[in-house]
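seq:
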Amino acid sequence: MKTIQLPDDVYQQASKLAAQDHVSVDKLVAVLVAEGVGEWSRLQERAGRGSIAKLKRVLAKVSDATPETVDQL
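struct:
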């Protein structure tokens, strides 16, 4: 097993969640990291199927209209 360091505020949040679920902080963090790693892998796989050419084709379909006031930056 490896040791990691967390910022104090993140540890405190994890500690509260772990206490609510009656599990250790280590167990909670392990589960959350595993879920995050899995999601990251899925996103990388999906990104690998995309391309700049496909993006440009989609963006070409968007009208060149001025956005409404509430949508402007």
